[in-house]
Design a protein that fits this description.
Number of helices: 15
Distance between the termini: 76 Å
Helix content: 25-40%
Shape: globular
Mean pLDDT: 96
Strand content: 15-25%
Structural class: alpha/beta
Number of strands: 21
Strand order of the largest sheet: 14-17-18-13-12-19-20
Low-confidence stretches: none
Largest sheet: 7 strands, mixed
Length: about 475
């Protein structure tokens, strides 16, 4: 694309095009064309960002909540105004169809709006005293300090917006390190905050190799909070680093979402929702439905019709053709990951009903929408998050068996169910072990509600009231009478 922005870091209120550690290419995954060169921060530039965040925190943490609200609301407005152009950059950087990229940007503005409102609402509370010698007991939520925010490529505006909105609303300063695959999407988001009037040093943007950058930033005594979205393995490593400095840590990690489908569910509506939910963003969604657990009475029909719809999905370069329903995987490594997940199937391990291989008749990192019938419980598909366009479908004989299969992994981000029974709805809402459960739909993310998991999917929440409180520390102030 000819209007891809020149990539720059933002440190201490200044845009910086030169990376002290060199540059790295940014590639369009649909055609493998190089979009631009991204500067990589040196250790000295990272230290400059830390120093700026330290100074920015001293200013921003004392800024009245109503003023923080006004600036963040303006940032949300700018994001919505610029959404069409930002969506085009998302499509170019990671292949997401424009019809999915545009609402991602728009809802990100709504997320920022809601969290901005929390800056006005979260005033703490008074606790009644138990002794006549005490005048008051007040609980407040103080900003935790400079925060390091580390985000992935699959939702390059929405995921940062959650973190930035919560941190900035609470009064924290920020060092934001986005994925190296999608730097321009992050840069355009940061520009909205800068143009809204955020004070110098409050928000800093750096790029670079994930390991060295994150380790350098987390090790600094200036950093007081780390928020990370990504794989479970990396999250555990970063959590250990944060723990060494007793720093607050919020990980939103991998998922392997089950979908329980009962015989009483509306079949056509459920089928359409499941196919659409599975192949959205080529399955590169942390809450993507992956393990479809289907009542045996409708299992064969569900597999057949699910596979037929999957095979009809149009796959291609969404930047060149807006009718494309599914774009490429984000990079070549994802192709190998899909092949590894599917490599142990066959025989009694599971049948590939449709798809199963990369699409090699053009440039780009494309993979066929893939459906696997009855994958074995110990198969890689049923135990490892594929993070791609692969669905496994297995039958069950009782609702209790379905729950046992759904809860059999240590992942616990999102779980879904489709049923026409109120009794089953109530039971599944209680029994499914995950941070978020959606019944008869796939929406587990809105600006007003918490987003987070349990087990190997992480802890803590983003968005909602919890997304603000996660960047605060609880403080109790008690006042006693001055004289006897």
């Amino acid at each position: 694309m000819t209007d891809y922005p020149k990539l720059k870091m933002f440190i201490g209120g200044e845009w910086i095009a030169d990376g002290g550690a060199g540059t790295m290419p940014v590639t369009n995954p649909a055609n493998e064309a190089v979009l631009g060169q991204c500067p990589k921060a040196s250790a000295e530039q990272l230290d400059a960002a830390l120093a700026a965040a330290d100074q920015g925190f001293a200013i921003w943490s004392r800024t009245p909540g109503i003023e923080r609200y006004r600036i963040l609301r303006r940032a949300g407005e700018l994001l919505r105004e610029r959404a069409p152009d930002i969506a085009k950059v998302i499509t170019a950087e990671m292949g997401k169809p424009h019809a999915q990229a545009l609402p991602e940007v728009a809802v990100s503005g709504d997320v920022i709006d809601f969290l901005a409102e929390e800056a006005k609402r979260q005033g703490g509370r008074l606790v009644p005293v138990r002794s006549p010698s005490l005048l008051s007991q007040q609980v407040t939520h103080e900003p935790v300090g400079p925060a390091v925010l580390l985000t992935p490529w699959n939702f390059p505006v929405n995921l940062p917006a959650r973190k930035l909105g919560g941190a900035l609303a609470a009064g924290c300063s920020v060092i934001f390190k986005p994925a190296e695959d999608t730097p321009a999407s992050a840069q355009l988001l940061v520009e909205c905050f800068v143009d809204a009037g955020l004070p110098k040093g409050v928000l800093n943007l750096v790029y670079g190799d994930p390991g060295p950058v994150s380790e350098h930033l987390i090790a600094s005594p200036i950093t007081r909070k780390v928020s990370f979205t990504g794989s479970t393995a990396v999250g555990k490593h970063l959590g250990a680093l944060a723990a060494q400095g007793m720093k607050r840590f919020t990980p939103e990690l991998g998922g392997h979402a089950p979908v329980v489908i009962g015989e009483s569910a509306d079949f056509e509506r459920t089928l359409a929702a499941c196919v659409g939910g599975k192949f959205r963003n080529a399955g590169q969604v942390c809450v993507s439905p992956t393990r479809f657990l289907v009542a045996r009475g409708i299992y064969d029909k569900f597999v057949s019709e699910f596979a037929a719809r999957a095979s009809a999905i149009s796959v291609g370069d969404a930047g060149a053709d807006e009718s494309v329903e599914m774009g490429p995987l984000a990079h070549e490594r994802r192709i190998a990951a899909m092949e590894n997940v599917l490599g142990d199937l066959g025989g009694d391990k599971g049948e590939i009903v449709t798809g199963g291989s990369a699409i090699t008749n053009s440039n780009g990192f494309f993979f066929q929408p893939t459906v696997v019938a009855n994958p074995a419980p110990d198969s890689r598909l049923m135990t490892e998050e594929p993070f791609g366009p692969v669905a496994g479908i297995v039958p069950y004989d009782s609702i209790e068996e379905a729950v046992r299969i759904a809860n059999s992994l240590r992942y616990g981000l999102a779980s879904y169910a489709f049923t026409g029974s109120l009794d089953e709805s109530a039971y599944l809402g209680r029994a499914l072990r995950s941070g978020m459960v959606a019944i008869n739909h796939f929406s587990v993310s809105s600006p007003e509600t918490p987003f987070g998991g349990v087990g190997d999917s992480g802890f803590g929440s983003e968005s909602g009231e919890e997304g603000y409180l996660g960047y605060t520390e609880t403080k109790l102030v008690t006042i006693g009478k001055s004289g006897a």
